[in-house]
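PROTOCOL LOG
Step 1. Enter all chains and additional molecules of the complex.
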Amino acid sequence: MSEVQGFLDRLSERAATRGAEPTWIAARRQAGAARFEALGFPDRKVEAWKYTDVRGIARGDFALAESAEFSPASAAALTLPIAAHRLTFVDGLFAPALSDLGELPAGVSVEPLSQALAANHEAVGGALGRLAGVDFSPFTALNTAFAEEGAVIRLAPGAVVERPIVLQFLSSARSAPVMSHPRVLVEAGARSQATLIEHQVGEEGAANFSNLVSELLLERGAILTHYKLQELPQGDHHIASLHVDQARDSRFTSFNLNLGGALARNDIVTDLNGQGAEANFFGLFFGQGRQVLDTHTLANHNAPLTFSNENYKGILDDRARGIFNGKVIVKRDSQKIEAHQNNANLLLSDRAEIDTKPELEIYADDVKCSHGATTGQLDQEAIFALRARGIDEATARGLLTLAFAGEVMERVAIDAVAERVELAVAGKLPERFNLAGLVEAAVALHEE
Amino acid sequence: MLEVKDLHVTVEGKHILKGLNLTVAAGQVHAIMGPNGAGKSTLSAVIAGKEGYEVTQGSITFDGQDVLEMEIEERARAGLLLGFQYPVEIPGVKNIYLLKAALNAKREAEGLGEIPAPEFMKLIKEKIAFMKMDASFLQRAVNEGFSGGEKKRNEILQMLVLQPKLALLDEIDSGLDIDAMKVVADGVNSLRAADRAILMVTHYQRLLDHITPDVVHVLVDGRIVKSGDAELAKELEARGYDWVLEESAA
Amino acid sequence: MASEEMEQLVRRDYKQGFVTDIESDTVPPGLDEGTIAFISQKKGEPQWMLEWRLKAYHQWLKMTPPSWAHLDYPPIDYQAISYYSAPKKPEDRPQSLDEVDPKLLETYEKLGIPLHERAALAGVAVDAVFDSVSVTTTFKEKLAEAGVIFCSISEAIREHPELVKQYLGTVVPTSDNYFAALNSAVFTDGSFVFVPEGVTCPMELSTYFRINAANTGQFERTLIICESRAQVSYLEGCTAPQRDENQLHAAVVELVALEDAYIKYSTVQNWYPGDEDGKGGIYNFVTKRGDCRGDRSRISWTQVETGSAITWKYPSCVLRGKDSIGEFYSVAVTNGRQQADTGTKMIHLGEGSRSSIISKGISAGHSNQAYRGLVKIGPRAKGARNFTQCDSLLIGDQCGAHTFPYQEIGNATATVEHEATTSKIGEDQLFYCQSRGISEEDAVSMIVNGFCKDVFQELPMEFAVEAEALLNVTLEGAVG
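Step 2. Run joint prediction.
Step 3. Record the structure below.
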């Protein structure tokens, strides 16, 4: 309880220094705080947190950052080298100097949450919190209580954004850890198209806690591709939930690439509410050391003729722990559904652990649903085959590890993102792996 | 035996058969040929009673009975049997079991009792030998893991066991090599009898080299536009379908 | 608790007395220490057994019923249940088959139950409906010759206390779960099997006893032990629908397999599922677990679950021994308003342990069914392997099929594969069968039986035949 109290105290401290807020915001904060207090931090008896120990967060003493300081040079090194519309946040605070929205197409607005609220808080109020209620989890409640910053993205009907919109969340190394509770709202109008990248990254030595909640509304025929590239420093704790509402014929594709953090938990929930709506979940998690990487996805097929497809790959080394829970619910009368899930895991070390649970809950009969989960090692015969062609064992293992991730990675359309992941996976593997060597070997294999 | 009159059929709102007329008498072998998309498979599906085909006009009678009013299994028990172009796989259900269940269903409809086991086994052994099939096949699940040729042989085997009055063969030659074609054709030829009719739907002439039809029909755009004897098939093989189209348009 | 106190307790309860005359062999509804002492006394149990029961009871008091299952039923009033009742007196039973519900008899007919067994199953008070005594005697002699002990658990507690003491509760501890604790406190009967070292049990057990076994009551306790290189095949249950006055059933089954031992346990469960609205059906909360203690030991569970209003059941294997093998083959059929939450746990602790799970679920009517499974690979289970295939078939659009497979893998040398599919019965397959003259209902049962083939072939022959017939009866009216 005292753990909960610590966070509530931070909230009252902040309330005392913060300027007056519109009533609905204050009321929502209160609801969030009350819910958080009632739920407390989840323990292992809570099914959704059965394998995930959040005591590292609960027992942490996290202040709220007061200033957004980050060296431009190190920020530049961390930033994805792509032409994009970019907002940067440092420890949760908006960093205008590190942001560059460039020229946005007509009918498209991208604003920091604080600015959007200041400009017209009523326009934001209706949508905010509609998809991510305080009951979803204690962390959503906590976010609702604290959230002050984040992003509001609006796409008018038919608007097409060519360049990706990047929300860059930087975590800085500080003498005392801080926490942030960013909130992201995306309203994609009918037939609009965009790619959104949420990028979590930070300085070595950081040990902060970030708690992100994103809400994405896709109107009829909207197409939204969402990338999450999480490469936080090893000391960071990160919790995120992504809530999607899909109208008829909309298409949502999620790439959830989890590489960093001491603990990273991602919830992705989509509601397929209109016929023809389609959701694709692709993910990769790579854990080493004592990392805990946890992903929960949920596809609610609320309407007939909706489709979902999921493919997650987990690679775990050292004493890392991976958790995957993919759930599909088909509501009564949601006929003609197709839902497929796959989760494959690779354990590279004897002490690594994976807990996976692909779930189906089906209340309609005209459905084609399947799921598969496999866990194994690198194929010894494949390693042998590569060695028989003159490739050393370490390189062979590296090649096969990348090949294992291939099914997901080949769908990643943004090269800079793919490169980050491949570099991280190959580079983070023990020294026996050498990317340049891998590439050469791959080329050699290809030419053979 | 089979009489199709002014048959109009739509599939998912699309008008496929547009006033098809066809009469098949006992003792005859008919072949229906036509280009892809003419409606050949629709015709066999409608006669067998597959769902999703809406008859908007016309009639089908079989031995004086209104076929369109009959359940799928009633049609089969009455002796109207379809050999599928793509026989479905039924995991876990043995061939021998399907054959026995189907034969007994037919016998029951005819007022006969269940076939005694020794008699059944004798019959089956004879028929699988005729179809040059291995006895182990009886213990395998229906069509599961069968090659294209095995599936088609299986269709004919069922015909031989169930002895239909009208055998309806939908593209029975597709996916067959020459040897398998020969076995299948021998099977079909052995079905020829004075009290039985055979109606084949095929895209290619080559089947008709092995099974000589009494009547050949050309089905184009949902109608039978030309009928003739076996020579017509050869002509189609040599000249294609265009000349028939032109002739019928004229 | 000291034995003196215990005795006092027993006596005190007698003093407190029961409303009903003790001679009538029943206790009024309700559960307290007195009830347990009464049961123990009735069974002529030694002191240690009563202590064991009371310990379980106190653990149970502190527990709460599990709520995680995908089941919906009103809370059970445990004080409204009578925990001991002797079989009905002859005069209270139907006097002949003419007095039995014709629907029930019709089902027996369809299942091909022999005439002389039907009367016994329907509870007709005929002295010699089934000459079980002579049959029993013959087999008992044969078993004794082989050194196999096969008797009721009550008899075993009296006659073989050292064996019971050594093994009872070592696989399913009294505090394992709510229902296991309850069972441990109040179980009334069940089977005991002991197969000594090197012996292969000369017959499949319980086939000939199935009717008698059906009367073992609502809290059944079974313990099967196979010593090194011993083997046994045990058949539980009955394909005939069993009527029972008791709505709550909470059985516990424990299996122990030592080195190179093999236990095959087959179940057909067909308790009354309730009426069309789901009223009156049996609640079946079962804890079944096998312990592969010895190297290369093997335990195989096969179940056909068609009955009960509520089924909560996860026959499991703890694969402790090196290269031990666990198997689970299950067919569960739900129709009407039935609900089933069933599956298995495979706990891999030993090096090279292997397990396979094949689960086939068929949901029809307004029923709901969940497969819930756990595959856990411990850090020392090097080279452990599991394969799981879990398929659901839906018949009709008002039923539900759910899959909750947990995998906890803590070993990089393990290979675990899980596959699951959910689909409706194939229209193409139905059409194919119908176009061969087979009626829709027969076609459905053929296809469903085919769907279940992988499991049925694991059943002992005579059970397999009955199981197929049973499936058809259960699915009657599911189509059309």
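Step 4. Note key features.
Confidence is low (pLDDT under 50) at residues 5-24, 125-135, 207-216 of chain C.
The CA atoms of residues 326 and 355 of chain C lie 5 Å apart.
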